[in-house]
User: Fold this.
Amino acid sequence: MGKIRDSVDVRAMRFAIGFPVMLAAGFVVCALLLRPDLPEPLAVRWTDAGAADFAPFTAFVGASAALIVAVGWAVLLQAVPLSRPVMMRRIMMGAGFAMSLFITTVLAAALVGQLGLPDARGSHVDASVLALGSGAALAMGFVMGMVFKADERWSVDDDLGMRQALESERDPDLARDRVSLWVHARSSIFVMLGIATLLPAALFTIAVPWVSALLVAAALVAAAFLVARIRVDRSGLRVFVAGFVRVMNVPAAAIDAATPRDVTAADYGGWGYRIHGNTTALLVSSGPAVVIDRSDGHRLAVSGGSAATADNIAQTLSRVAARARRNGGAPAT
Assistant:
């Protein structure tokens, strides 16, 4: 039982199980109250010519109640596991609530459309009940998704946050030795890239589809190399193309100097990731950058965004490199 409580939101599970059952019970009670004014058997499917299929009152009500419960459980229970993201749980709770109400609305509209008729062949689904109930179901589902408070539990992210907080408390300078930022080319570059590739791809779509796919892929790869994520901490410098492909990993102890400069991309081979002799560069545009001299004679150049951020990266790299050399070359954890 303890393991179940640690993996599911018990309060949400109670609601997910109980609400469809209570909704189905309410539908059954209302159907029984309407039974004297309903024909026998009831229509369960309609075509343009009218009612096509029929079922006894007991079978219709029993199957309807089972459908309400099954649909409600199938969707609402998706909001119960604590391992799922909070936003997903809130969406599934709202969706399950709305879906349960919508199914009940459709079944109620089928019953109301047969009230007072001696024969179900002349019946129809009541449009007013269906429209009003569907709108209410959608609105109530949205409200439920907004007000549902997912049960928050201690997670791996909380462990990481606590560890970082303790490290910052023990070492106040630790926060100053961490820099994380995104750099990207100017928006006009992406617009020109789209014009140069996507427009020709659209023209080739009908005649040569594989050429269009090739041009789109080339545009995506080129755009990815004009976006980078830079991370600096006491272990050194790491640069990721498109935010996740690591192309540079420089230990702090291997850095001799880091200097902010205003560079021209053409001097380093152009935009993107370039290797030329002893120089490796990742420049998304000409302008502020950080030039790093390694102890093995290699040089790196990385775009710094603005002049202020480039200066901050250079100062941080200088501090962590000096700290690593004082510690004997081992990066601090």
About this structure: The chain has nine helices and eleven strands. The chain has two domains: 2-147, 163-185+226-326. The first strand starts at residue 42 and ends at 47.
